[in-house]
What we know:
By secondary structure, the chain is of the alpha/beta class.
Amino acid sequence: MIKNILKSSIVELMKLFPIKRNRCMFYSSYGANYGCNPKYISKYLKETNSNLELVWVLNSPEKYNLDGVKVVKNMSLAYFYNLATSKVIVTNFRTARDFKKRKNQKYIQTWHSSLRLKQIEKDAENSLPKEYLLQAKEDSEKIDYLLSGCKKSTEIFKRAFWYDGVILESGTPRNDFLFNITEKEKQQIKNSLGVKEDEKVLLYAPTFRKGNSLDVYNLNYAELLDSLKIRFGGKWKILLRLHPHLINLSSNIKDENILDVTKYDDIQELLGVSDFLISDYSSLMFDFSITKKPCILYTPDLYEYTSSDRGLYFDIHKLPFESVLNNEALNKAILEFDESYYRDNLEQFLEGVGSYEDGKASERVANLIQSICKGE
Protein backbone atom coordinates (compact mmCIF):
# COMPACT_ATOMS: atom_id res chain seq x y z
CA MET A 1 0.00 0.00 0.00
CA ILE A 2 2.73 2.49 1.02
CA LYS A 3 4.72 1.57 -2.08
CA ASN A 4 1.75 2.29 -4.34
CA ILE A 5 1.05 5.62 -2.64
CA LEU A 6 4.71 6.61 -3.05
CA LYS A 7 4.68 5.61 -6.71
CA SER A 8 1.50 7.61 -7.37
CA SER A 9 3.02 10.64 -5.66
CA ILE A 10 6.15 10.39 -7.83
CA VAL A 11 4.04 10.11 -11.00
CA GLU A 12 2.10 13.27 -10.07
CA LEU A 13 5.27 15.13 -9.09
CA MET A 14 6.93 14.40 -12.44
CA LYS A 15 4.00 16.01 -14.25
CA LEU A 16 5.30 19.36 -12.99
CA PHE A 17 8.19 19.09 -15.46
CA PRO A 18 7.58 20.21 -19.05
CA ILE A 19 7.41 17.70 -21.90
CA LYS A 20 10.54 17.79 -24.07
CA ARG A 21 9.49 17.93 -27.70
CA ASN A 22 12.46 15.94 -29.00
CA ARG A 23 12.55 13.21 -26.32
CA CYS A 24 11.37 9.68 -27.16
CA MET A 25 11.22 6.78 -24.71
CA PHE A 26 11.46 3.12 -25.76
CA TYR A 27 11.11 -0.13 -23.89
CA SER A 28 10.56 -3.78 -24.75
CA SER A 29 9.02 -6.60 -22.70
CA TYR A 30 8.61 -4.38 -19.63
CA GLY A 31 12.31 -3.50 -19.65
CA ALA A 32 13.54 -7.11 -19.89
CA ASN A 33 15.57 -6.63 -23.07
CA TYR A 34 16.83 -4.39 -25.84
CA GLY A 35 14.90 -5.88 -28.71
CA CYS A 36 11.76 -6.27 -30.81
CA ASN A 37 10.06 -3.40 -32.64
CA PRO A 38 11.20 -0.59 -30.31
CA LYS A 39 14.85 -1.57 -30.91
CA TYR A 40 14.60 -1.32 -34.68
CA ILE A 41 12.68 1.95 -34.63
CA SER A 42 15.19 3.57 -32.27
CA LYS A 43 18.12 2.17 -34.27
CA TYR A 44 16.75 3.70 -37.45
CA LEU A 45 16.29 7.07 -35.74
CA LYS A 46 19.83 6.97 -34.36
CA GLU A 47 21.42 5.86 -37.66
CA THR A 48 19.62 8.58 -39.64
CA ASN A 49 20.80 11.32 -37.27
CA SER A 50 17.32 12.30 -36.24
CA ASN A 51 18.47 14.83 -33.59
CA LEU A 52 16.00 13.25 -31.20
CA GLU A 53 16.88 12.36 -27.62
CA LEU A 54 16.41 8.58 -27.45
CA VAL A 55 15.78 7.04 -24.03
CA TRP A 56 15.74 3.29 -23.38
CA VAL A 57 14.23 1.71 -20.26
CA LEU A 58 15.94 -1.49 -19.07
CA ASN A 59 15.72 -3.61 -15.93
CA SER A 60 19.50 -4.14 -15.99
CA PRO A 61 20.97 -1.08 -17.72
CA GLU A 62 24.49 -1.99 -16.59
CA LYS A 63 24.50 -4.82 -19.15
CA TYR A 64 24.15 -2.45 -22.10
CA ASN A 65 26.29 0.13 -23.81
CA LEU A 66 24.00 1.79 -26.34
CA ASP A 67 26.06 4.45 -28.05
CA GLY A 68 24.06 7.61 -28.62
CA VAL A 69 21.16 6.44 -26.46
CA LYS A 70 20.31 7.40 -22.89
CA VAL A 71 19.64 4.31 -20.75
CA VAL A 72 17.60 4.46 -17.53
CA LYS A 73 16.73 1.79 -15.00
CA ASN A 74 13.13 0.64 -14.96
CA MET A 75 11.05 2.02 -12.06
CA SER A 76 13.82 4.43 -11.00
CA LEU A 77 13.29 8.16 -10.54
CA ALA A 78 14.94 8.66 -13.93
CA TYR A 79 12.38 6.29 -15.44
CA PHE A 80 9.41 8.22 -14.03
CA TYR A 81 10.96 11.55 -15.03
CA ASN A 82 11.55 10.48 -18.65
CA LEU A 83 8.16 8.76 -18.85
CA ALA A 84 6.47 12.01 -17.83
CA THR A 85 8.57 14.28 -20.06
CA SER A 86 8.93 12.29 -23.31
CA LYS A 87 6.97 13.52 -26.28
CA VAL A 88 6.65 9.98 -27.69
CA ILE A 89 6.51 6.65 -25.83
CA VAL A 90 7.09 3.44 -27.81
CA THR A 91 6.62 -0.07 -26.43
CA ASN A 92 5.67 -3.58 -27.55
CA PHE A 93 3.71 -4.77 -24.51
CA ARG A 94 0.95 -3.24 -22.45
CA THR A 95 2.16 -0.26 -20.42
CA ALA A 96 2.07 -0.39 -16.64
CA ARG A 97 -0.88 1.26 -14.97
CA ASP A 98 1.42 3.92 -13.51
CA PHE A 99 1.82 5.42 -17.01
CA LYS A 100 -0.59 8.36 -16.92
CA LYS A 101 -0.39 9.81 -20.41
CA ARG A 102 -0.26 13.58 -20.51
CA LYS A 103 -2.25 15.73 -22.90
CA ASN A 104 0.55 16.44 -25.36
CA GLN A 105 2.20 13.03 -25.30
CA LYS A 106 1.83 10.41 -28.03
CA TYR A 107 1.92 6.68 -27.37
CA ILE A 108 2.85 4.23 -30.14
CA GLN A 109 1.96 0.60 -29.40
CA THR A 110 3.97 -1.68 -31.73
CA TRP A 111 2.81 -5.02 -30.26
CA HIS A 112 5.24 -7.93 -30.63
CA SER A 113 4.30 -9.90 -33.73
CA SER A 114 3.36 -9.34 -37.34
CA LEU A 115 0.57 -11.94 -37.10
CA ARG A 116 -0.38 -14.54 -34.56
CA LEU A 117 -1.76 -18.07 -34.44
CA LYS A 118 -3.01 -18.12 -30.86
CA GLN A 119 -5.84 -15.78 -29.93
CA ILE A 120 -5.05 -12.58 -28.03
CA GLU A 121 -6.70 -9.99 -25.81
CA LYS A 122 -10.51 -9.83 -26.07
CA ASP A 123 -10.56 -12.97 -28.23
CA ALA A 124 -8.80 -14.83 -25.40
CA GLU A 125 -10.61 -13.08 -22.54
CA ASN A 126 -11.52 -16.32 -20.77
CA SER A 127 -7.88 -17.44 -20.73
CA LEU A 128 -6.24 -14.25 -19.44
CA PRO A 129 -5.88 -13.07 -15.81
CA LYS A 130 -8.37 -10.44 -14.68
CA GLU A 131 -5.58 -8.08 -13.60
CA TYR A 132 -4.02 -8.25 -17.06
CA LEU A 133 -7.37 -7.61 -18.74
CA LEU A 134 -7.86 -4.47 -16.65
CA GLN A 135 -4.34 -3.31 -17.52
CA ALA A 136 -4.93 -4.05 -21.23
CA LYS A 137 -8.19 -2.12 -21.38
CA GLU A 138 -6.63 0.90 -19.66
CA ASP A 139 -3.63 0.71 -21.98
CA SER A 140 -5.84 0.70 -25.08
CA GLU A 141 -7.37 4.00 -24.01
CA LYS A 142 -3.90 5.60 -24.03
CA ILE A 143 -2.80 4.43 -27.48
CA ASP A 144 -2.49 6.96 -30.33
CA TYR A 145 -1.05 4.63 -32.98
CA LEU A 146 -1.15 0.84 -33.18
CA LEU A 147 1.11 -0.93 -35.69
CA SER A 148 -0.10 -3.70 -37.98
CA GLY A 149 1.93 -6.13 -40.10
CA CYS A 150 -0.86 -7.32 -42.39
CA LYS A 151 -4.56 -6.97 -43.21
CA LYS A 152 -5.40 -9.97 -41.04
CA SER A 153 -3.72 -8.32 -38.04
CA THR A 154 -5.66 -5.12 -38.63
CA GLU A 155 -8.86 -7.15 -38.60
CA ILE A 156 -7.86 -8.84 -35.32
CA PHE A 157 -6.86 -5.56 -33.67
CA LYS A 158 -10.14 -3.86 -34.58
CA ARG A 159 -12.08 -6.67 -32.94
CA ALA A 160 -9.89 -7.72 -30.02
CA PHE A 161 -7.79 -4.79 -28.83
CA TRP A 162 -10.43 -2.58 -27.14
CA TYR A 163 -9.19 0.11 -29.52
CA ASP A 164 -10.83 2.12 -32.30
CA GLY A 165 -8.07 4.62 -33.03
CA VAL A 166 -5.44 4.85 -35.77
CA ILE A 167 -3.96 1.55 -36.96
CA LEU A 168 -0.75 2.22 -38.85
CA GLU A 169 -0.48 -0.46 -41.54
CA SER A 170 3.27 -0.07 -41.70
CA GLY A 171 4.62 -3.60 -41.52
CA THR A 172 6.62 -4.83 -38.52
CA PRO A 173 9.83 -2.89 -37.72
CA ARG A 174 11.64 -5.87 -36.24
CA ASN A 175 11.12 -7.80 -39.48
CA ASP A 176 13.12 -5.23 -41.44
CA PHE A 177 16.19 -7.03 -40.11
CA LEU A 178 15.19 -10.25 -41.87
CA PHE A 179 14.99 -8.40 -45.20
CA ASN A 180 18.27 -6.56 -44.79
CA ILE A 181 20.62 -8.82 -42.81
CA THR A 182 24.08 -9.09 -44.38
CA GLU A 183 26.46 -12.05 -44.47
CA LYS A 184 28.81 -10.08 -42.21
CA GLU A 185 26.05 -9.60 -39.64
CA LYS A 186 25.17 -13.30 -39.80
CA GLN A 187 28.76 -14.25 -39.07
CA GLN A 188 29.02 -11.77 -36.20
CA ILE A 189 25.89 -13.24 -34.60
CA LYS A 190 27.12 -16.80 -35.10
CA ASN A 191 30.46 -15.90 -33.53
CA SER A 192 28.73 -14.37 -30.51
CA LEU A 193 26.75 -17.61 -30.07
CA GLY A 194 29.73 -19.91 -30.53
CA VAL A 195 28.37 -21.35 -33.78
CA LYS A 196 30.98 -22.21 -36.40
CA GLU A 197 30.94 -20.53 -39.80
CA ASP A 198 30.29 -23.79 -41.65
CA GLU A 199 27.50 -24.96 -39.32
CA LYS A 200 23.87 -24.69 -40.36
CA VAL A 201 21.41 -23.65 -37.67
CA LEU A 202 18.14 -25.18 -36.54
CA LEU A 203 16.24 -22.96 -34.11
CA TYR A 204 13.70 -24.58 -31.81
CA ALA A 205 11.55 -21.77 -30.42
CA PRO A 206 8.25 -22.86 -28.84
CA THR A 207 5.81 -20.70 -26.89
CA PHE A 208 4.84 -21.18 -23.22
CA ARG A 209 1.99 -23.16 -21.66
CA LYS A 210 -0.21 -22.59 -18.66
CA GLY A 211 1.73 -23.47 -15.55
CA ASN A 212 5.00 -23.08 -17.48
CA SER A 213 5.35 -26.84 -17.99
CA LEU A 214 8.43 -28.07 -19.88
CA ASP A 215 7.01 -31.53 -20.59
CA VAL A 216 5.99 -30.81 -24.18
CA TYR A 217 9.48 -29.77 -25.28
CA ASN A 218 10.44 -33.42 -25.64
CA LEU A 219 12.25 -33.42 -28.98
CA ASN A 220 14.74 -36.18 -29.67
CA TYR A 221 17.60 -33.87 -30.58
CA ALA A 222 20.05 -36.60 -31.63
CA GLU A 223 17.58 -38.05 -34.14
CA LEU A 224 16.72 -34.55 -35.28
CA LEU A 225 20.36 -33.84 -36.15
CA ASP A 226 20.57 -37.09 -38.13
CA SER A 227 17.45 -36.22 -40.14
CA LEU A 228 18.74 -32.72 -40.92
CA LYS A 229 22.08 -34.08 -42.13
CA ILE A 230 20.42 -36.72 -44.32
CA ARG A 231 17.93 -34.30 -45.91
CA PHE A 232 19.97 -31.11 -46.19
CA GLY A 233 23.58 -32.17 -45.71
CA GLY A 234 26.34 -30.36 -43.83
CA LYS A 235 26.96 -29.84 -40.13
CA TRP A 236 24.11 -28.60 -37.94
CA LYS A 237 23.80 -26.80 -34.60
CA ILE A 238 20.52 -26.81 -32.66
CA LEU A 239 19.61 -23.63 -30.76
CA LEU A 240 16.93 -23.81 -28.05
CA ARG A 241 15.07 -20.57 -27.39
CA LEU A 242 12.19 -20.87 -24.94
CA HIS A 243 9.66 -18.11 -24.39
CA PRO A 244 10.85 -15.23 -22.13
CA HIS A 245 8.33 -16.41 -19.49
CA LEU A 246 10.57 -19.48 -19.09
CA ILE A 247 13.90 -17.69 -19.03
CA ASN A 248 14.83 -19.13 -15.62
CA LEU A 249 13.72 -22.67 -16.50
CA SER A 250 15.43 -23.36 -19.82
CA SER A 251 18.53 -24.77 -18.10
CA ASN A 252 16.33 -27.65 -16.88
CA ILE A 253 16.32 -29.01 -20.43
CA LYS A 254 19.65 -30.79 -20.57
CA ASP A 255 20.90 -32.30 -23.81
CA GLU A 256 24.41 -32.35 -25.23
CA ASN A 257 23.04 -31.68 -28.71
CA ILE A 258 21.56 -28.22 -27.99
CA LEU A 259 22.80 -24.73 -27.27
CA ASP A 260 20.46 -22.81 -24.93
CA VAL A 261 19.94 -19.26 -26.25
CA THR A 262 16.82 -18.42 -24.23
CA LYS A 263 18.57 -15.44 -22.62
CA TYR A 264 19.66 -14.00 -25.96
CA ASP A 265 17.97 -10.60 -26.20
CA ASP A 266 16.99 -10.35 -29.84
CA ILE A 267 15.01 -13.26 -31.30
CA GLN A 268 15.16 -11.57 -34.72
CA GLU A 269 18.91 -12.05 -34.83
CA LEU A 270 18.42 -15.75 -34.07
CA LEU A 271 15.86 -16.03 -36.87
CA GLY A 272 18.25 -14.22 -39.19
CA VAL A 273 21.00 -16.85 -38.82
CA SER A 274 18.67 -19.86 -38.78
CA ASP A 275 18.31 -22.24 -41.72
CA PHE A 276 15.35 -24.13 -40.25
CA LEU A 277 12.74 -23.27 -37.60
CA ILE A 278 10.75 -25.61 -35.40
CA SER A 279 8.06 -23.86 -33.37
CA ASP A 280 4.48 -24.58 -32.27
CA TYR A 281 1.86 -21.89 -31.63
CA SER A 282 4.30 -18.98 -31.55
CA SER A 283 3.95 -16.00 -33.89
CA LEU A 284 7.62 -16.46 -34.82
CA MET A 285 6.56 -18.71 -37.69
CA PHE A 286 5.07 -15.69 -39.47
CA ASP A 287 8.19 -13.56 -38.97
CA PHE A 288 10.38 -16.42 -40.21
CA SER A 289 8.23 -16.82 -43.32
CA ILE A 290 9.96 -13.71 -44.69
CA THR A 291 13.15 -15.76 -45.12
CA LYS A 292 11.25 -18.44 -47.11
CA LYS A 293 13.30 -21.04 -45.19
CA PRO A 294 11.76 -24.29 -43.85
CA CYS A 295 9.53 -24.27 -40.78
CA ILE A 296 7.70 -27.16 -39.09
CA LEU A 297 5.36 -26.97 -36.08
CA TYR A 298 5.88 -29.52 -33.30
CA THR A 299 2.54 -29.68 -31.46
CA PRO A 300 2.27 -32.88 -29.37
CA ASP A 301 -0.34 -31.19 -27.12
CA LEU A 302 -2.50 -29.75 -29.91
CA TYR A 303 -5.81 -30.99 -28.53
CA GLU A 304 -5.04 -30.03 -24.93
CA TYR A 305 -3.68 -26.62 -25.89
CA THR A 306 -6.62 -25.60 -28.09
CA SER A 307 -9.23 -26.93 -25.67
CA SER A 308 -7.88 -25.57 -22.40
CA ASP A 309 -5.19 -22.94 -23.10
CA ARG A 310 -5.80 -20.77 -26.20
CA GLY A 311 -7.98 -20.86 -29.28
CA LEU A 312 -6.34 -20.37 -32.68
CA TYR A 313 -7.01 -17.87 -35.46
CA PHE A 314 -6.21 -20.41 -38.17
CA ASP A 315 -6.82 -24.09 -38.74
CA ILE A 316 -3.29 -25.29 -38.00
CA HIS A 317 -3.57 -27.95 -40.70
CA LYS A 318 -4.23 -25.30 -43.36
CA LEU A 319 -1.12 -23.27 -42.63
CA PRO A 320 1.85 -23.54 -45.00
CA PHE A 321 3.86 -25.01 -42.11
CA GLU A 322 3.37 -28.74 -41.56
CA SER A 323 2.37 -29.61 -37.99
CA VAL A 324 3.30 -32.91 -36.32
CA LEU A 325 2.35 -34.61 -33.06
CA ASN A 326 5.44 -36.66 -32.20
CA ASN A 327 9.15 -37.15 -32.87
CA GLU A 328 8.60 -39.86 -35.45
CA ALA A 329 6.36 -37.61 -37.52
CA LEU A 330 8.78 -34.70 -37.09
CA ASN A 331 11.70 -36.65 -38.52
CA LYS A 332 9.55 -37.96 -41.36
CA ALA A 333 8.47 -34.39 -42.21
CA ILE A 334 12.11 -33.26 -42.34
CA LEU A 335 13.25 -36.19 -44.48
CA GLU A 336 10.38 -35.66 -46.94
CA PHE A 337 10.44 -31.85 -46.92
CA ASP A 338 9.44 -30.48 -50.34
CA GLU A 339 10.89 -26.98 -50.66
CA SER A 340 9.04 -26.05 -53.86
CA TYR A 341 5.65 -27.11 -52.47
CA TYR A 342 6.38 -25.27 -49.21
CA ARG A 343 7.30 -22.00 -50.94
CA ASP A 344 4.23 -22.06 -53.16
CA ASN A 345 1.95 -22.52 -50.14
CA LEU A 346 3.83 -19.82 -48.26
CA GLU A 347 3.38 -17.28 -51.04
CA GLN A 348 -0.34 -18.01 -51.23
CA PHE A 349 -0.70 -17.66 -47.47
CA LEU A 350 1.14 -14.30 -47.29
CA GLU A 351 -0.98 -12.99 -50.14
CA GLY A 352 -4.11 -14.20 -48.37
CA VAL A 353 -3.34 -12.41 -45.08
CA GLY A 354 -2.35 -9.23 -46.94
CA SER A 355 1.21 -8.86 -45.67
CA TYR A 356 2.64 -5.32 -45.47
CA GLU A 357 6.19 -6.52 -44.84
CA ASP A 358 8.77 -5.02 -47.22
CA GLY A 359 11.75 -4.13 -45.02
CA LYS A 360 10.80 -0.46 -44.60
CA ALA A 361 8.53 -0.48 -41.55
CA SER A 362 11.08 1.19 -39.25
CA GLU A 363 11.43 4.06 -41.70
CA ARG A 364 7.66 4.61 -41.77
CA VAL A 365 7.34 4.69 -37.98
CA ALA A 366 10.45 6.85 -37.63
CA ASN A 367 8.96 9.37 -40.07
CA LEU A 368 5.79 9.43 -37.96
CA ILE A 369 7.81 10.10 -34.81
CA GLN A 370 9.73 12.88 -36.53
CA SER A 371 6.47 14.49 -37.60
CA ILE A 372 5.05 14.27 -34.08
CA CYS A 373 8.16 15.84 -32.55
CA LYS A 374 8.15 18.64 -35.12
CA GLY A 375 4.51 19.32 -34.29
CA GLU A 376 3.31 18.57 -37.80
